[in-house]
Design brief:
The structure is a single chain. This protein has one domain: Heat Shock Protein 90 (2-Layer Sandwich). Helix content is 28%, strand content 26%. A hairpin with a 4-residue loop joins strand 2 and strand 3. The longest helix is centred in the middle third of the chain and has 18 residues. A five-stranded antiparallel sheet has the order 1-2-3-5-4, covered by helices on one side. By secondary structure, it is an alpha+beta fold. Helix 1 runs antiparallel to helix 2. The relative contact order is 0.19.
Length: 144
């Protein structure tokens, strides 16, 4: 008898702390292991690391990691933060390659290259909502 894997999601709220991205990556590894998706760990961890680091470095408030699996073998990694500005690499505009000796600017192009799909949503402040933006990237089994 075939079984249907129900969709699931987790959200980890992170404080403004330099250890937060590492804690979030560890949580991601545990969640994927618990759901029997270890083959997604390398790609998902890379996507999460880049999105989390972007939020940590370029925003001033808290941020959150969201993991969502709505179909078997697929994962959406999303990071929310309070800044509504979408990084240039997540818009449709072309972004220049960083110079070879640049220490910054490779994260978003790396996400775009490694994800099956990616996108951004600007969130308006409504009621209890804090607004901001949500950057996301998806990966699936056999993505690489």
């Amino acid at each position: 008898m075939a079984t249907v894997s129900p969709s699931w999601n987790y959200t980890l709220h992170l404080p403004r702390d330099p250890r937060a991205p590492g804690i979030a990556r560890g949580t991601l590894r545990l969640v994927l292991a618990a759901h029997g998706m270890p083959e997604l760990t390398p790609t998902a961890e890379l996507l999460a690391a880049e999105l989390l680091t972007n939020s940590h470095c370029h925003t001033k408030g808290p941020y959150a990691l969201r993991l969502l699996s709505s179909e078997p073998g697929r994962l959406r990694v999303a990071v929310w933060d309070t800044d509504p500005r979408v990084p240039p690499g997540f818009t449709n505009a072309a972004t220049p390659e960083p110079p070879p000796n640049a220490e910054h600017g490779r994260g978003i192009p790396l996400v775009r290259a490694c994800a099956d799909a990616w996108g951004a949503s600007v969130l308006r402040e409504l009621g209890a909502s804090k607004g901001g933006k949500l950057l996301w990237a998806e990966c699936g089994a056999g993505a690489w």
